[in-house]
């Protein structure tokens, strides 16, 4: 890659902003310091000088920084902010519905990371539909968006379009999905395990707060537990209530308990397991 640093009639002030030069890692850069005889480039304002031509044959991330063009007398004529990075790759996108059927969350990442500031736009529509709607970014998260209004039991898939744009290029990923296939509740909340009788623990929990359609789309639950110090766990359920009793446990021993949720009719997949809670069985 070649770029020109053109001349200036007068010296620059030190606080004048630098011109950005974005380059792909691994590419070449050649920029001439047009400041008369004896002109030279410096990096980050330090010696030794780099010569009249800033020449990098294989730009690396470490080459990034502020380069300044000076006259033979030391006057500053140009500032160049060299910013190595990568053009966007097609984002890797994942979508799930934590509040079926009202909303869908989508997130994405890129490999390699672009390094440079990258903007994202996300839209969705039914396949072959001209009705394209935005997937709105969530507060403070540039790689997560929320979409509402996806159609239930559609014979056509929805298509999510995520486009990444930075100074070195753009790239797009199209992700088809069927709403019922991506149902995934958040984990149950407020999991509690309480010893009540010898060899028993009562386990209780609350539905995930994000699942606001519980009346129309009930959840079922599974309980996983293991003895402290052991890797093997046992899973029980499903249960339609938010309470169950673990029986036949070892007196005086501590157990770790987790709960997961799934839509009652098996739409999509189960939630992740809740964070483990611990309880000690009453001694005999």
UniProtKB/TrEMBL annotation:
Residues 187-284 form the Fibronectin type-III domain. Keywords: Glycoprotein, Immunoglobulin domain, Repeat, Signal. It comes from the Eukaryota. One of its GO terms (cellular component) is membrane. Residues 1-81 form the Ig-like domain. GO terms for molecular function: cytokine receptor activity. SUPFAM superfamilies: Fibronectin type III, Immunoglobulin. InterPro entries: FN3_dom (IPR003961), FN3_IL27B_N (IPR056621), FN3_sf (IPR036116), Hematopoietin_rcpt_L_F3_CS (IPR003530), Ig-like_dom (IPR007110), Ig-like_dom_sf (IPR036179), Ig-like_fold (IPR013783), Ig_sub (IPR003599). Gene3D superfamilies: Immunoglobulins (2.60.40.10). PANTHER family: INTERLEUKIN-27 SUBUNIT BETA. Belongs to the type I cytokine receptor family. Type 3 subfamily. This is Interleukin-27 subunit beta-like. It comes from Scleropages formosus (Asian bonytongue). The lineage of its organism: Eukaryota, Metazoa, Chordata, Craniata, Vertebrata.
């Amino acid at each position: 890659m070649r770029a020109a640093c053109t001349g200036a009639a007068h010296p620059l002030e030190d606080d004048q902003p630098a011109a950005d030069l974005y380059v792909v890692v691994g590419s070449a850069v050649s920029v001439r310091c047009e400041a008369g005889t004896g002109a030279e480039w410096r990096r980050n304002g330090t010696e030794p000088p780099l010569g009249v031509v800033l020449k990098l044959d294989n730009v690396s991330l470490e080459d990034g920084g502020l380069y300044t063009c000076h006259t033979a007398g030391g006057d500053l004529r140009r500032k160049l902010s060299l910013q190595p990075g990568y053009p966007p790759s097609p984002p890797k996108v994942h979508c799930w519905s934590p509040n079926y059927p009202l909303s869908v969350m989508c997130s994405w990442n890129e490999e390699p990371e672009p390094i440079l500031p990258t903007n994202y736009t996300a839209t969705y529509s039914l396949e072959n539909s001209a009705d394209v709607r935005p997937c709105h970014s969530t507060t403070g998260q540039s790689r997560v968006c929320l979409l509402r209004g996806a159609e239930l039991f559609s014979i056509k898939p929805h298509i999510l379009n995520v486009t990444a744009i930075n100074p070195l290029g753009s790239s797009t990923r199209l992700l088809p999905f069927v709403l019922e296939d991506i149902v995934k509740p958040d984990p149950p909340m407020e999991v509690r395990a309480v010893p009540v009788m010898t060899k028993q623990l009562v386990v209780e929990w609350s539905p995930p707060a994000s699942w606001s359609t519980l009346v129309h789309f009930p959840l079922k639950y599974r309980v996983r537990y293991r003895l402290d110090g052991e890797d093997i766990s046992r899973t029980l359920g499903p249960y339609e209530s938010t309470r169950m009793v673990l029986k036949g446990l070892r007196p005086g021993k501590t157990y770790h308990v987790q709960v997961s949720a799934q839509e009652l009719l098996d739409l999509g997949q189960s939630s992740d397991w809740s964070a483990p809670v611990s309880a000690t069985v009453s001694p005999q």
